[in-house]
Design goal:
The protein is of the alpha/beta class. It is built from 6 helices and 9 strands; from the N terminus they run αββαββαβαββββαα.
């Protein structure tokens, strides 16, 4: 009898350990409408290449949620389009690239700059019973290089998002969405300043996060 009880207790403990601290999948990409500027901003007269490799797209990141759990997401896959949209508001033309081009390839495509993003994230929640993160932070660094690969600038922006549990509904990544919106809206001005070119104040970089 004692052996059976021990087996039951051991089995229960194993089950709890399997479910405790699990990673829940979320996305950190907001709706495109939340990133669309009210007015078309001034653009830098240049064609740029945005480099996001397949390896970057499949990279999964795991950060803390609430209740001892974690959240898992793919930042480059989720932010590729928001970054592309921000660059489209900044430059006359943007070309998506699956790999860093050679100098010859960059010049053949008429690229003035080649831009490679680097994304870092953090998340947290004080809750001990719910897993979605109530706070999320996105830091986006864009390495801007000329066709030869020489780095011209590395503008960096950061966005922070907060969401209470009663706001989550079906979007458990709401705080991440808000952080992404704030970071991406800052990007055009950050790039313009880094390159010594002003972007329109009425565009995507000038909007206030309302979502």
């Amino acid at each position: 009898m004692n052996i059976r009880r021990y087996i039951r207790v051991a089995t229960l403990c194993i089950g709890i350990s399997l479910f405790a601290g699990c990673a829940h999948n979320i996305t950190i990409a907001p709706d495109a409408a939340s990133l669309t500027p009210a007015k078309k901003p001034d653009q830098i007269s240049a064609t740029v290449g945005l480099v996001v490799t397949n390896a970057m797209r499949t990279q999964e990141i795991v950060t803390p949620g609430g209740g001892g759990d974690k959240v898992a997401y793919k930042p480059y896959r989720d932010l590729e389009f928001p970054v592309y949209l921000a660059l489209s508001q900044t430059f006359k033309d943007v070309v998506k690239l699956d790999e860093a081009p050679t100098e010859a390839a960059a010049r053949a495509k008429g690229l003035t700059y080649v831009i490679t993003p680097e994304i870092t994230t953090t998340s947290s929640s004080p809750s001990i019973v719910t897993w979605p993160p109530t706070d999320f932070r996105v830091t986006l660094t864009c390495t801007v290089a000329d066709p030869s690969g020489k780095v011209i600038a590395k503008p960096q922006v950061t966005g922070s998002g907060h969401a209470e549990f009663n706001e989550f509904k079906h979007n458990f990544g709401l705080s991440a969405d808000r952080a992404t919106i704030e970071a991406v809206r800052k990007l055009p001005d950050a790039i313009g300043q880094a390159l010594g070119t002003s972007t329109a104040q009425s565009g995507i970089g000038a909007q206030q996060a309302t979502h």
